[in-house]
Amino acid sequence: MKNVGMQPDPRDVDRGVREIAADLWANVDDLVQDMTTLVMSRHPQIEALGMRDFVAGSGAVNLPILLDGLARNREPSSFDLSVEVADQTLHIVRSGAPLELVSAGYRIVASWVVELWTDTAALRTDLSESTKIAVIRRGTGFILSWTESLVEGIGGVYRTELARIAEERSREHIEFVQSVLDGTVGDAGLIEKRLGMALAGPHLCLILRSNSNDDRASDLKNALYRLTSSAGVATEVTVVADQRTVWCWVRYQEGRQFDWSTPMSGVTLAVGRAAAGLPGFVSSHRFATAALRVAGLRSEPPVRVRYDDVEMVALCTADPDTARAFMTTVLGPLAASGAARQRETLDAFLQSSMNFRGTASRLGLHHNTVRYRLDAAEKVLGYAIESRRLELELALRLHAWLA
């Protein structure tokens, strides 16, 4: 083996790289065919996706670029992704081929080109052994680095297009569900097909709403998954309404009590009212939305609110300012923060059908203490409790959310 221990002349290495690149370029059409056959044999699923023409087209674009870069001794990372390769990548995404499969295909081709480069260099009789080794090393390093740079660029285009398609589909999904909710679409068969659910059974709508601007929709979806899994219910439809809000319909079992645990800190869970059929699908969302609106009346929204628990408040707070004025007028000084004990006693009295002993039992007090507190409350109110019982009950409910 001649001159194997000598340092090769850099000019000979440059010449060897240029000439081998030119030799391969002269046969590029045949190489593209060989490359396509190789990829198809290694990855039959690419063939199954109907991507033979794509593989051949990719080779026809990329092999000349690769060989030209070698001949010109360019940095592998200095290449911008060509328009042709970017367009081919968009085609890959739309064909449904996973990025991992595409990356594996490019790396198979890289290994094959390295082997081809090595064999071609080894057959050169005009190059010293040390020059051949240097040529092989330079070619191998360039091919592998260039391929990784190409795969990285393709990955960026792939992920961007995948996100765009997902966003487009998500937007279409939201628009379709919204059209069902507003009554624009009422064909039960179409709705079941598009949403993949049966409309006949009872539906319960849940809404998760982040109380800050920091949470992402993906975090809310994860929280929703944990919530429904722990409750043992199956999700029918999920809609990311915006970055802070997720709607979800679950299959509801009549008579079953669900313990909706807190999904995550800083999030409010609004629970609608279960109902059957398409009208129930729509009304449960309406009730969950109303419950969420009530939760938003508080400066610090609760972690969970059920429509059944706040129905009266929901009905009376369509205009919060008017409701707040009504509450203040009815309660007067009892609306102040320092009157919490009097409000508690008054509420217990009304909930106990205005029975003193029942109120005392509810609060754990002597009935005379209850009488004393209620007498004091009437003096503050300026009217007898029984004279405005309904208004007082409503005002106390509103105070819990509006104060």
What does this structure look like?
It is built from 16 helices and six strands. The model has no long low-confidence stretch (mean pLDDT 89). The protein starts with 9 loop residues before the first helix and ends with a helix. The chain folds into three domains: 10-165, Globin-like, CATH 1.10.490; 200-315, Alpha-Beta Plaits; 320-402, Arc Repressor Mutant, subunit A. The longest helix has 53 residues, at 129-181. It is an alpha+beta fold. The chain is elongated and about 115 Å long. Strands 1, 2, 3, 4, 5 and 6 form a six-stranded mixed β-sheet that branches.
Record keyword descriptors for this entry.
403 residues, alpha+beta, Globin-like, Alpha-Beta Plaits, Arc Repressor Mutant, subunit A, six-stranded mixed sheet, 16 helices, 6 strands
Instruction: Tell me the structural class.
Output: alpha+beta
- What is the count of distinct domains? 3
Strand content: 5-15%
Q: Shape from CA axes? A: elongated
The biggest beta sheet reads: 6 strands, mixed
User: What is the highest CATH level, the class of the largest domain?
Assistant: Mainly Alpha
Helix content: 55-70%
Q: Report the uncertain regions.
A: none
Classify the fold: give the CATH topology of the largest domain. Answer: Globin-like
Q: Indicate the radius of gyration in whole angstroms.
A: 36 Å
**Total number of helical segments?**
16
Gap between N and C termini: 94 Å
Averaging pLDDT over every residue, what do you get? 89
**Helix and strand element order:** HHHHHHHHEHEEEEHEHHHHHH
CATH architecture descriptor name of the largest domain: Orthogonal Bundle
* Strand segment tally: 6
